[in-house]
Amino acid sequence: MSGSLLAISDLHVAYAENRQVVQNLRPRSDRDWLIVAGDVGERFADIAWALRVLSERFQRVIWSPGNHELWTPRDDDVSLRGEARYRRLVELCRELGVDTPEDEYPVWTGTGGPATVAPLFLLYDYSFRVDGVATKEESLARAYATGVVCTDEMLLHPDPYPSREEWCWSRVEQTERRLAECDPTIPTVLVNHFPLVREPTRVLRYPDFAQWCGTERTADWHLRFRAAVAVYGHLHIPRTTWHDGVRFEEVSVGYPREWRPRGGPTQPKVVL
Ligand SMILES: [Fe+2]
Ligand SMILES: [Fe+2]
Fold first, then answer.
1. CA distance 116 to 65
2. Tell me: the pLDDT tens digits for 191-212?
3. 192 with 232: CB under 8 angstroms?
4. Which ligand has its closest atom nearest to the C-alpha of 255?
5. By CB neighbour count within 10 A (0-12 exposed, 13-18 middle, 19+ buried), where does 168 fall?
6. What are 20-61's pLDDT values in tens digits?
7. Which ligand is the nearest neighbour of the Cα of 253?
8. Ligand 1 midpoint to CA 235 (Å)
9. For residue 151, which ligand has an atom nearest its CA?
10. What residue ranges define each of the domains in the chain, with the CATH number in brackets?
């Protein structure tokens, strides 16, 4: 057995039923790697618990942060905000041996390999606006008017950046440089909590929510950086789509109220 490259996201372990989902997650072989594409939870201790459990079972765990990990919940043990909270999460991952966007990208050599597995942290910049909406201000105003406002506006602080979009643009620049340095002879598995292209957001029930779902600045990354597959979550709409011939996998578990009607939680997806 040469193992499988598996992916899952949006574990949201604040829910007891989702903690059970994590408890039930097992590798099929001792060579399996698990990609965790963000939204493990909100509280630091919850995130630590889930990543610890998974890191003890899978040969390698690769994490990209979701927006929920980056919240600063009012009563959390860790009161750091923005970049400082992200750095603390990276430190936690290092204690657990979990790969982060700050580490050298591992190369998968099992089934379907070789491929560079690149966990990314890119955030969003309000550029996925509904047609005809020209500015972020107008886009946010529409969301407030319709009541479709992402909780990030209250809990995801961009410090020390002046705004979430400036944090996003800084991440995009740094990440672009890193990806350009990857071995050009092998494909990549691009892992980001948010979809790299806008198309998957077209099916959102509330189109105004798309502004919190990615950035136009990554629209061609799946081609430029030779993605064999792009893994994401955040939308809580697990499915496979193809863009420019590249496979995109939304691998979210989501909330119990979302997966219960489907007959059970999403199982880890074999991405390679
Ligand atoms: Fe989520
Ligand atoms: Fe999310």
1. 18
2. 999 999 999 999 999 999 999 9
3. yes
4. 1
5. buried
6. 999 999 999 999 999 999 999 999 999 999 999 999 999 999
7. 1
8. 7
9. 2
10. 5-270 (3.60.21.10)
Phi, psi of 270 (to 5 degrees): -80, 110
Measured in angstroms, how far is the CA atom of residue 181 from the centroid of ligand 1? 30
pTM of this prediction exceeds 0.90: yes
Q: Phi and psi of 53, rounded to 5°?
A: -55, -45
Q: Name 175's Cβ contacts closer than 8 Å, sequence gap at least 6.
A: 101, 120, 121, 122
Tokens of 86: 């992200």
Q: Which long-range contacts (CB under 8 A, 24 or more apart) does 101-105 make?
A: 101/64, 101/65, 101/175, 105/178, 105/182
**Token duo for residue 198:** 């806008």
| Residues recorded for the chain | 272
Taking 3-state DSSP, the helix, strand and coil percentages for the chain, each rounded to the nearest 5, stand at: 35, 15, 50
Question: What separation, in Å, do the N-terminal and C-terminal C-alpha atoms of the chain show?
Answer: 14
Point out the ligand nearest to the CA of residue 15: 1
